[in-house]
């Protein structure tokens, strides 16, 4: 019987998970891609197709662990390891690794402490490791009551499971809690998780750091440490917490020693014995306090930047400890106190700069090309999050950031100067060049598309309108159709006949209305989006899709004979709502050059 080729299972090999594919290929280990779910954000699904050539096989998980294992074991490979390729795949990867009796399994007893942002803090407390004070609930009144009793403003609110700064709010008062609750509870995050609860945590004053680690047999190495800068509030989103940049720090200093010692304690507490970890820690007046544990690679271009800085990719470290017996780990690991630990070498300085946009409109030129045209010496690569021709929105978290500029140079001073130049260009409108309508002028023709003049929003927000809102047939401009009322928690909603299937042309006239907060009599409400005005015009449509451009999500809905609206129980997260809007109208957004390809916004 011929010997089977060795293979590794990689669950959701998206975002930085693609670097695992490169490393596994280099050592002749086949990749079995397992997709944890098929309703993730478009940027995850696009990543699958972009890297499909690396997959020997693909298995789609259908919520039955044993069925997935059976499908994997039927394949003609010897499975030697299981990896999490991105945040959505962490839990399933841990479950598969344990059930398939992999030698590098961490077990699932403490899985919630490695995944749930609230439970990880509680586990630290149980183990005597300093942790953040917190309270969790989905009930608005309970959250407000705890905040008032605690009376220690500001506070931070976050969902139990998310990535990057998605759904993280900086709260100064009770009204901010109310707004954050209305904005996020009842939605679905980019990782496909329903947001039913908020975790309110004390605001950790200090400087935030990232500690990138790998573990083998319960021993730990810090392969890179970064100082992390965030903006707390912007003129267009005063309560947001927005990532600004992160850059690698020297491996040896008083702060680095404290970070490493604390990070090793955290890994022991949450039970991470094997694999990579991307940990965020705040250095406060009382010492280091955990922000969150992420048992995966550093997102985006993290592995490549670590390689540019230290000479060794974090993906190479991860493959070594999970699939190669920790050979490289054992060569570098130093036993004893953390102060005598392995120290990575800084060969070049690196910074990951978040591109921040404060305007809204259709991009008339590519973001990457606009940055490259500045000819800045340290700019290594630009990753735009929006394509030329698509609708860009103001940045309020990582999922709405305009993209990233990766900066590599021997001189930190040169990097700092280039960062200042980029920020100045952003403010001057030189990077995000926009038009109020799509530059490709996508309306078919004046005869086919009657005038689409803006229609004033109803004066009585939340009340049914006396008559339907007349809107012409043809394609609609999401920016210029109906201005949303000032009290609306989002931008403009659009209802269209047809189904949610991408690419289905719409033959009936769409109805467009401003988003409204509150309930409209006889209409029904849409959790996390708001309610609608008069639905007279939808009577003959049967079904429609409601798009929320500001939050990049949509719901599918149907209208019953009695005029009531039945909505999908959860909103569907998507990368760019205008792309679904375009697909429903039967056209494709403007193609872009290869260098403007969109990549995942997972941090």
UniProtKB/TrEMBL annotation:
Keyword Protease: no
Coiled-coil parts of chain: none
SUPFAM superfamilies: Glutathione synthetase ATP-binding domain-like (SSF56059)
Keyword DNA repair: no
Taxonomic source organism: Eutreptiella gymnastica
PROSITE patterns tied to this protein: ATP_GRASP
GO molecular function: ATP binding; ligase activity; metal ion binding
Database matches in InterPro entries: ATP-dep_AA_Ligase (IPR052032), ATP-grasp (IPR011761)
Lineage start: Eukaryota, Discoba, Euglenozoa, Euglenida, Spirocuta
Keywords, sorted A to Z: ATP-binding, Ligase, Nucleotide-binding
Name of the protein described by the UniProt record: ATP-grasp domain-containing protein
Stretches assigned to the ATP-grasp domain: 121-323
């Amino acid at each position: 019987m011929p010997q089977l080729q060795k293979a590794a299972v990689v669950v959701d090999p998206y975002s930085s998970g693609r670097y695992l594919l490169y490393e596994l290929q280099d050592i002749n280990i086949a990749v079995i891609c397992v997709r944890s779910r098929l309703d993730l954000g478009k940027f995850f699904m696009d990543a699958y197709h972009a890297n499909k050539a690396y997959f020997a096989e693909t298995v789609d998980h259908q919520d039955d662990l044993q069925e997935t294992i059976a499908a994997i074991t039927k394949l003609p490979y010897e499975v030697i390891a299981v990896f999490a390729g991105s945040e959505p795949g962490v839990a399933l990867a841990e479950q598969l690794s344990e059930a398939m009796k992999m030698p590098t399994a961490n077990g699932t007893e403490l899985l919630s402490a490695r995944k749930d942002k609230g439970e990880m803090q509680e586990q630290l407390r149980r183990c005597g490791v300093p942790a953040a004070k917190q309270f969790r609930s989905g009930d608005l009144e309970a959250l407000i009551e705890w905040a008032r009793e605690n009376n220690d403003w500001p506070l931070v609110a976050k969902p139990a499971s998310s990535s990057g700064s998605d759904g993280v709010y900086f709260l100064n008062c009770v009204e901010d809690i109310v707004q954050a609750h209305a904005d996020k509870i009842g939605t679905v995050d980019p990782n496909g998780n329903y947001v039913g609860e908020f975790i309110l945590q004390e605001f950790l004053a200090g400087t935030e750091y990232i500690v990138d680690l790998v573990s083998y047999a319960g021993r730990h190495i810090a392969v890179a440490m970064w100082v992390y800068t965030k903006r707390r509030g912007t003129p267009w989103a005063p309560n947001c917490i927005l990532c600004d940049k992160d850059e690698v720090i020297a491996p040896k200093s008083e702060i680095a020693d404290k970070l490493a010692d604390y990070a090793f304690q955290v890994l022991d507490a949450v039970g991470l014995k094997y694999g990579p970890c991307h940990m965020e820690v705040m250095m406060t007046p009382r010492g280091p306090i955990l922000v969150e544990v992420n048992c995966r690679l550093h997102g985006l271009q993290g592995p490549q930047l670590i390689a540019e800085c230290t000479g060794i990719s974090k993906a190479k470290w991860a493959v070594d400890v999970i699939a190669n017996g920790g050979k490289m780990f054992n060569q570098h690991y130093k036993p004893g106190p953390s102060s005598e630990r392995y120290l990575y070498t800084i060969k070049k300085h690196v910074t990951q700069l978040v591109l921040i946009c404060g305007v809204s409109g259709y991009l008339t030129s590519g973001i990457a090309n606009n940055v490259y045209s500045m000819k800045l010496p340290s700019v290594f690569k630009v990753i735009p999050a929006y394509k030329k021709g698509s609708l860009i929105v103001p940045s309020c978290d990582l999922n709405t950031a305009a993209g990233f500029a990766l900066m590599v140079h021997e001189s930190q001073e040169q990097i700092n100067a280039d960062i200042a130049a980029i920020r100045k260009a952003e403010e001057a409108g030189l990077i995000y060049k926009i038009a109020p309508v799509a530059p490709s002028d996508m309306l078919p023709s004046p005869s086919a598309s009657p005038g689409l003049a803006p229609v004033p929003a109803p004066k009585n927000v939340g009340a049914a309108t006396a008559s339907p809102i007349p809107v012409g047939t043809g394609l609609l401009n999401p920016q210029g159709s109906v201005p949303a009322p000032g009290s609306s928690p989002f931008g403009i909603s659009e209802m269209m006949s047809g189904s949610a299937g991408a690419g289905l042309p719409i033959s009936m006239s769409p109805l467009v209305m401003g988003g409204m907060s509150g309930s409209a009599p006889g209409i029904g409400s849409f959790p996390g989006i708001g309610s609608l005005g008069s639905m007279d015009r939808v009577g003959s449509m049967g079904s429609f899709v409601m798009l929320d451009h500001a939050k990049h999500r949509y719901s599918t809905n149907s209208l019953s004979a009695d005029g009531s609206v039945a909505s999908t129980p959860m909103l569907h997260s998507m990368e760019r709502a205008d792309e679904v809007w375009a697909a429903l109208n039967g056209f494709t957004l403007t193609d872009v050059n290869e260098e403007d390809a969109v990549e995942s916004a997972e941090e």
